[in-house]
Write a structure and sequence with these properties.
Helix content is 17%, strand content 51%. It is built from three helices and seven strands; from the N terminus they run βαβββαββαβ. The chain has a six-stranded antiparallel β-barrel. The model has no long low-confidence stretch (mean pLDDT 93).
Length: 129
């Protein structure tokens, strides 16, 4: 028998903290786009690095969605975060400096010198057993 349960925000934040690959969803030229990124989750912020291009042009100063999921032998789960994104590459303040000190092992080739942070305003998750 399959059972689905909602995950509370603590469980969602734990899964976000324990993983490092997710998908960023945004709109570009009136078309939905979903792209994989390596990330870290710190202090309610999802942070990833990118190089100049579509993500850097379209994501900052907009509302976005971010999703991760996983599977084990007896269950699968999914977490979705929504929030406001901004380019924090040159943002001042100790919190942003500490974020930029985070180690993000980037899989995709490229410079990835720009840092995007998503301030999570809504978090939801589900587990299916």
């Amino acid at each position: 028998m399959t059972a689905m349960t909602d995950l509370d925000s603590d469980a969602c934040m734990s899964l976000l903290s324990d993983n490092d690959i997710g998908r960023i969803a945004f709109v570009s030229d009136d078309t939905p786009v979903i792209l994989p990124v390596n990330y870290v989750f710190r202090s309610g912020l999802i942070v990833f690095r990118t190089d100049p291009g579509e993500k850097l042009t379209e994501i900052p100063m907009r509302r976005v969605a971010f999703e991760i999921d996983g599977r084990s032998d007896d269950h699968s789960w999914s977490v979705m975060a929504q929030g406001h994104a901004r380019d924090v590459t040159t943002a001042l303040g100790k919190a942003y400096e500490e974020l930029r000190d985070s180690v993000i092992d980037v899989s995709a080739p490229g410079d990835k010198s720009h840092w995007i942070a998503i301030e999570v305003t809504h978090l939801s998750g589900r587990m299916i057993r």
